[in-house]
Design a protein that fits this description.
It is a single chain. The chain is of the alpha+beta class. It contains four helices and six strands; from the N terminus they run ββααββββαα. The protein starts with a strand and ends in an 11-residue tail after the last helix. The model is unreliable at 153-160 (pLDDT under 50).
């Protein structure tokens, strides 16, 4: 998977922010409170967070990612490629909650469960294996070793 572009509109402290990724390794640098963690959290949210959350799950999400006093929703658009296929992913949480995934010039998925199922397949992701290692931020090495040590023995190494 290669990230091409992400748009936060709005998400956390950003009303509108677009970031273009270049081929190869991208390093995000900035001062404190510049939005580095927000960018990582937006990528994790659009790839893994359900838009059809119940109140119990949604309240902490809303407190972190819906801009206070500036709206009733959070939205992230992500363009990425897997092999030669380019996908457009859009998720909205809160008012107007929705999820869509479109293969440029091809198929589309337009409900949260179908979108997540397709993403899991594209990313070769399984909850027991992939999530702790996707987009590592500040997980200590010792915790990473513990997670690896206790993962299910029946899991498949990803990517294949």
């Amino acid at each position: 998977m290669r990230l091409i572009q992400i748009e936060l509109c709005p998400f956390a402290g950003f009303q509108q922010r677009t970031v273009d990724f270049q081929p190869g390794l991208n390093v995000v640098l900035g001062e404190n409170e510049a939005g580095k963690s927000t960018l990582v959290n937006a990528i994790k949210a659009v790839l893994f967070e359900n838009t059809q959350q119940g109140k119990r799950e949604f309240t902490p999400f809303a407190e972190k990612y819906i801009p206070r006093g500036k709206g009733d929703h959070a939205k992230v658009n992500l363009t990425f490629s897997v092999g030669s296929d380019v996908y457009s992913l859009s998720k909205t949480w809160g008012a107007g909650k929705s999820a869509s995934l479109k293969l440029n010039g091809g198929a589309s998925w337009n409900d949260d469960s179908a979108v997540q199922e397709q993403l899991n397949e594209l990313l070769h992701w399984h909850p027991a294996v992939g999530k702790p290692f996707c987009l590592q931020t500040k997980t200590p090495y010792s915790k990473q070793r513990t997670i690896l040590k206790h993962r299910p023995k029946t899991s498949t190494a990803y990517p294949p």
